[in-house]
Design a protein that fits this description.
The chain has 340 residues and is an alpha/beta fold. It folds into two domains: 162 residues, Rossmann fold (3-Layer(aba) Sandwich); 106 residues, no CATH class. The chain is 35% helix and 15% strand. The chain is built from eleven helices and 13 strands. Strands 3-2-1-4-5-6-11 form a seven-stranded parallel β-sheet, sandwiched between helices. The protein has a two-stranded parallel ribbon with strand order 7-10. Strands 8-13 form a two-stranded parallel ribbon. Helix 1 crosses helix 6 and helix 5 packs across helix 10.
C-alpha cells in the first residue's frame, strides 16, 4: 500500500509509521520539525506545517497529487481543529481509498452513571464552536467537530478510531510509565484501598496494528479503541503489574479519605486513579473494534516493555504523578497514623 501519514513522529503515530514500514508499505510522512525523527530511512519525509495559515505542508502534498499520485490510505494523527482538519480533507478527498482520522474517547459527554458506552453515546458540545485553542476544556469538543468534518468529506470511506489513554514505549505523557517506574524503584508505595474504580489504557503498538489492519482491509466506521481488558479494576492492574515486574515494592493500602486529607488527588498524583465523576472513561466498550480486528496484548507485556524502555532512556524526571520524596513522606505519615 501507499500510505500518507499526517503527523507520525511521536508515540502512537511513531508506532504506526514504524509498523507500516516494517510491513513493507510505502510511507509518506508530513511532519513539522526539520529535525530527523529517527524513523526508518525508507520513509519519504515532507517537512512543513499542515495548517495552511502556518506553513506549506499541504502544498507539498498537493505537488504529489498533481503528479497523479494516489494514496491507498491517509492516516491523520494530528487533526485538532475543524479548520485545519477540513483543509486536509478537502485536498485529499478524491485521492485516497480510506481516511483514518484518530479521534479520542474525550468526545463523549461525561456521564458517570453510564456503563459500557458505545460509539453512539452522547458527545460533548462546545459552547463556542469557533474556538481553536486546544485545552483540557475544548479538546473533546473540537475532536467532535473534526470528526464531523471527516464524515462530511468521506461519508463512505472513513475510519475513526477513538482511543482511550495510550501507553507503551515512547509515551510522552508518563501516565502509565509512572506505575512502572514506582514499582521498580520505590521501597514502599501508598495506593488507594479497593474498590478504587477501573483503569483503561491501550498499548500504542496494538493501536498501530489496528490502524494498519483497517487500512489493509478497508475497514470503515467509528470504533472505540480501549484496553487492555473490559472493566479492569485499578487494584488488579496494580497487583498484576507488581508481579510482572518482580517488584519488591511494599504496597500500602490507604483509605480514600485519608489520601484526600493528605492532599493526594486522583489522576494528578496517582495517574489512572480516576475520581468518580470521570469513571466513565474506563467504562467505554470496544466490542465493535474487537469484532473488527483490534487485539490487545496482556497488560503485563505492556508494563514490562514500558519498564525496559524507561530504564533505557535514562529514567528522566516524570511529567506526572507524585515524586519519590512525596511518596516517602506519605509512607511515613501512614506508618505514624497521621490524620492530616
Amino acid at each position: 500500500m501507499n500510505i500518507l501519514i499526517l503527523g507520525g513522529t511521536q508515540f502512537s503515530g511513531r508506532a504506526f509509521t514504524e509498523l507500516a514500514v516494517q510491513s513493507g508499505h510505502q510511507v509518506t510522512l508530513l511532519h513539522r520539525s526539520p529535525a530527523d525523527p529517527g524513523l526508518p530511512p525508507a520513509i519519504r519525509r515532507l517537512v512543513g506545517d499542515r495548517d495552511p495559515n502556518a506553513g506549506d505542508g499541504l502544498d507539498q502534498i498537493k505537488a504529489l497529487l498533481d503528479t497523479e499520485q494516489r494514496f491507498d490510505a491517509v492516516v491523520d494523527m494530528c487533526g485538532y481543529t475543524p479548520r485545519v482538519t477540513k483543509a486536509a480533507c478537502e485536498l485529499l478527498k478524491d485521492h485516497t481509498d480510506l481516511y483514518i482520522y484518530i479521534s479520542t474517547i474525550s468526545v463523549y459527554d461525561q456521564a458517570p452513571a453510564q456503563t459500557n458506552l458505545d460509539e453512539n453515546a452522547p458527545k460533548v458540545i462546545l459552547a463556542d464552536p469557533t474556538v481553536e485553542e486546544v485545552t483540557a476544556e475544548t479538546y473533546g469538543g473540537l475532536k467532535v467537530l473534526c470528526e464531523q468534518v471527516v464524515l462530511d468529506a468521506f461519508p463512505e470511506n472513513h475510519c475513526i478510531p477513538r482511543p482511550c489513554v495510550i501507553a507503551g514505549p515512547n509515551d510522552p505523557t508518563d501516565r502509565i510509565t509512572w506505575w512502572a517506574r514506582m514499582l521498580t524503584t520505590q521501597e514502599s508505595l501508598v495506593i488507594p484501598k479497593p474498590p478504587a474504580g477501573l483503569v483503561s489504557f491501550i498499548d500504542a503498538r496494538d493501536l498501530a496494528a489496528f490502524f494498519l489492519h483497517c487500512a489493509t482491509n478497508k475497514i470503515t466506521g467509528i470504533f472505540n479503541t480501549t484496553g487492555p481488558e473490559s472493566n479492569l479494576p485499578l487494584h488488579d492492574f496494580i497487583r498484576r503489574t507488581h508481579k510482572a515486574l518482580n517488584s519488591k515494592t511494599t504496597l500500602i493500602e490507604a483509605d480514600h479519605q485519608w489520601l484526600k486529607d493528605q492532599g493526594v488527588q486522583p489522576w494528578q498524583d496517582i495517574p489512572t486513579w480516576l475520581p468518580d465523576e470521570r469513571q466513565f472513561m474506563s467504562r467505554i466498550s470496544s466490542a465493535k473494534a474487537l469484532a473488527n480486528g483490534l487485539a490487545n496484548r496482556p497488560l503485563e507485556d505492556t508494563m514490562i516493555a514500558i519498564r525496559d524502555w524507561d530504564i533505557n532512556r535514562g529514567s528522566p524526571d516524570l511529567k506526572v504523578g507524585m515524586n519519590p520524596d512525596r511518596i516517602a513522606d506519605l509512607v511515613a505519615k501512614h506508618a505514624s497514623g497521621a490524620t492530616a
